[in-house]
Amino acid sequence: MTSLLSPELTQTFTETGTGPQAAPAWVLTVIWHPDLQRMGEQAVLSPDTPLALNRYQPLFSPLQAAAGWAQPLLHASISRASLTLKLGGDSLTLSPEDERVRAEWQGQALTGPRTVPLPAEGDSAVIQLGKRVLLCLHRAHQLPVTDNPLLLGVSSAMEGLRRQVARVAAAALPVLVRGESGTGKERVAQSLHRLSPWAAGPWVTVNMATLSEGLAPAELFGAARGAYTGAQVARTGLWAQADGGSLFLDEIGDCPAAVQPMLLRVIESGEFRPLGATQPLRSRARLIAATDRPLETSGFNLPLLRRLQTFTLSTPSLRSRREDLGVLARQAWLDTGATPDDLAEMPTELARALCLHDWPGNVRQLEQAMRRLALDHAAGLWPSVEALLGEPLRLPPDPAPPHPTAMTPPPAAPVLAAADDTEPGLPPAEPLAAPRARQSTAGIDRTMLLQALDAHGWQLKEAAEALGVSRPSIYNLMARWLDTPPAESLAAEQLTPLLARPDATLAAMARQLQVPREALRRRLRALGLPRPPDDTDTDTDTME
Ligand SMILES: Nc1ncnc2c1ncn2[C@@H]1O[C@H](COP(=O)(O)OP(=O)(O)OP(=O)(O)O)[C@@H](O)[C@H]1O
């Protein structure tokens, strides 16, 4: 892999500042790249100088920015012509240099300069460059320099969390971890234990939601022999088991009300009394609790809450740190045992959906999606977007949709896409036609798209003309409205029954499978399957 030493980048990082007090910088983070190693690499935008984004610039740096290594995006589908990003107060202007630049802002194709509102605090935006690379534009209050294999992420929020965990780990005081479900609260608790002076001691966990009011005291504090019916021997409680280590009380908000004062006592004095015992016991367990509940308003014991929140750590939602998607998705994929190469081949519409989804179930939901993906892929299929996500694609709210600027439109002369702007193995990009009045894709819904495609036998050139949009736009429309797997993922078993039909034609099959006709023809050829008998057309639609 090409690597370039980048003193300029190191300089930029230094100037921008890495401390929490520094003014936030706008950063581009790679959240999808066919070279999976590139996920999480970052480039900082200067507030004063427009950033030219193309195949060879700027330089993106990996997590350990201090190493000073950086490299451009390099992917062959990204043009040498630039998409220029210019920050201006609370807006951003994106200007494609010419028609060679293929780019999308928040899933919408950029066909000319646009000025868009910058994402609000805690929000971010997704920029697609070329066919396969997705970047997240976000704020950074501090750049990532620390590492913790349990707490992955290049966002400021994760960098801050890793630092807090490292700072708090050694304190012999309770810690409360708060955050939405699936955001990694248990991971934070594990990290606190591993980094603490008690790391060699036991790590004991209990989910308070699973303890009934009757059983909880014995479970937590133990019981003397004969303390209750069936207690033939003395029982060691979790608190005693965790002596010299850490006790993690997950879902503390579900702790039975009667048990809450008992917890308060043990936190305050370190002493507890097993059920039926005459003497109290002492434990030096460090307590970590976690919740996704608003404990202040849910009737929780407030003195206990105050003791628990001696230190409070918060885990951020995944949608508020979209820049971490790439590194998290890559790790979740590798955890399934699948190879990086397989993921690199994933169709862009799936990658785009992963990057744009708002992930209400946070990292856990992302992990489930990656497991589904690995399973389907092992069976020779790429799932639909909906099957991948396990729910319909939920786009982040768009407070103000992009609007065109009054800036100069792109050059009027027809421009040839350079052959080396095309991914190796894919057909060369076609010369772009001279610009003409084109309809915006915004007004084209799924029905209109399908009608045009069906009417033209799934030949994209004709369908695009009928809709009055450019050919790249029809791909964007297909990615937006259709969630059928791409032609390259079709298996022989899916195609043979359709070929066996007496009325089989290429157009009919393309319509049924919702794939471009030419892509289907290539797939049949690749699988060594016959063309349908009446396939005599000679269309040369090569883009997909
Ligand atoms: N920063 C992270 N890096 C890597 N994996 C993560 C991270 N955060 C969460 N995960 C993964 O996401 C999943 C959910 O994490 P975890 O169980 O810690 O979340 P939680 O907030 O405790 O969830 P719940 O509230 O539902 O118990 C786990 O499988 C964990 O491996």
TrEMBL record:
CDD domains: AAA. The keyword ATP-binding applies. Residues 395-413 have a biased composition (Pro residues). Residues 151-375 form the Sigma-54 factor interaction domain. Residues 395-440 are annotated as: Disordered. The keyword Transcription applies. It comes from the Bacteria. This is Sigma 54-interacting transcriptional regulator.
